[in-house]
Amino acid sequence: MRAIQIDRFGPPDVLGLVEAPRPEPGPGEVLILTVATSINPVDDKTREGAIGEGTPPLPMTLGWDLAGIVVDGGDSGLRAGDRVIAMSHQLSSARGTWADLVALPAKSVAAAPQAISLNEAATLPLPGLTAWQTLDWLAVSAGERLLIAGASGAVGGLALQIARARGVEVDALVSRDAQVAFAHDQGAGVVTTDRRTLRDRGYDAVFDTFGAFVTEAVADGGRYASIATQAGPVPDLSVRGVRTTVNQVREDGAALNELTELVDRGSLRPRVHSTFGLHEIQAAHERFRQGGLTGKITVTF
Ligand SMILES: NC(=O)c1ccc[n+]([C@@H]2O[C@H](COP(=O)([O-])OP(=O)(O)OC[C@H]3O[C@@H](n4cnc5c(N)ncnc54)[C@H](OP(=O)(O)O)[C@@H]3O)[C@@H](O)[C@H]2O)c1
């Protein structure tokens, strides 16, 4: 089968399309034929060698997101032909999804939404789970006020829609004027590109997707979650009674099923910026690195 691997770290031209052995699913695992995947910041950092300790050994197959068709459901209840989505925690398991066939634990796999294509669905797993799990940690409830920093990014854009579906009032910090309309369209109230205009201690919770550390915006006694691991820890706000975390995404088929339901209800819309073929993986990474995206870059098999 085909796989996208690296045998050294570096710019996009280290990415190679190689022949790799077909994986054999173990007990409790599902074998999936990949239809589409997407590029996440972690893939870019892994390829560059920026992750450091904890990176799987070389050569390695990259990729976290997966949308595809079940080939062998084992005893999972999934059947051959089912459309599914999954996230593989590639850094901890070394099971990259950028391969024709991927074997994953059944509990990491969920039904794909019916309302969208598998290409669109491939944008959901890693950013969607990160958004879902971080909102769960923040425990924002209907009527509470949430600030999302980076609300037009992959994770932030989904978090905004999920939070609105949960009845939360959301304001947004975005990077560019072009992103303001998107955030309003998704139901954000106040949207700003200027952090100095944020309400001082005005938010029950802050979801920080890029290491903004807008700590003055969170109310005393509130919650502050960052997902920007490489920006370091959130400053200690315990004197103000603020709980803080840097949240790490986990494989979670049950939460993926919740995301699928939201999509099929029309409450969550993924955004595809552009789509590349597998043989164009280097060009796809080059485009990803240029930035200025309005949605995810997907790769089809
Ligand atoms: N901890 C975890 O488990 C986990 C999981 C997923 C992602 N992450 C990390 O979280 C980060 C976000 O991931 P993502 O996939 O959402 O990336 P993304 O799609 O690039 O989104 C980041 C967003 O933040 C915006 N932004 C960056 N700097 C800004 C600034 N100074 N002011 C306002 N907005 C700014 C970006 O705007 P522009 O488009 O204009 O740059 C973009 O909209 C990445 O660093 C990723 O590695 C961590």
Q: How would you sum up this structure, described in words?
A:
The radius of gyration is 19 Å and the shape is globular. The model has no long low-confidence stretch (mean pLDDT 97). It is an alpha/beta fold. The chain contains eight helices and 16 strands. The chain has two domains: 2-123 and 270-300, Quinone Oxidoreductase, Chain A, domain 1 (Alpha-Beta Complex); 127-246, NAD(P)-binding Rossmann-like Domain (Rossmann fold, 3-Layer(aba) Sandwich), CATH 3.40.50.720. Strands 3, 5, 6, 7, 8, 15 and 16 form a seven-stranded mixed beta sheet that branches. The structure holds NADP nicotinamide-adenine-dinucleotide phosphate. NADP nicotinamide-adenine-dinucleotide phosphate is lined by residues 40-42, 126-127, 130, 150, 152-156, 173-176, 209-210, 227-229, 247-249, 291, 293.
Task: Describe the largest sheet.
Answer: 7 strands, mixed
Unreliable stretches, pLDDT < 50, 5 or more residues? none
Question: Rg to the nearest angstrom?
Answer: 19 Å
Overall average residue pLDDT = 97
SS strand fraction: 25-35%
* Helix and strand pattern: EEEHEEEHEEHHEHEHEEEEHEHE
CATH topology annotation of the largest domain: Quinone Oxidoreductase, Chain A, domain 1
Which percent bin holds the helix content? 10-25%
Query: How many individual domains?
Result: 2
Shape, please?
Answer: globular
CATH superfamily of the largest domain: Medium-chain alcohol dehydrogenases, catalytic domain
**Distinct bound molecules:** NADP nicotinamide-adenine-dinucleotide phosphate
CATH architecture of the largest domain: Alpha-Beta Complex
CATH class annotation of the largest domain? Alpha Beta
Distance between the termini: 11 Å
Number of strands: 16
**Broad structural category:** alpha/beta
The tally of helices reads: 8
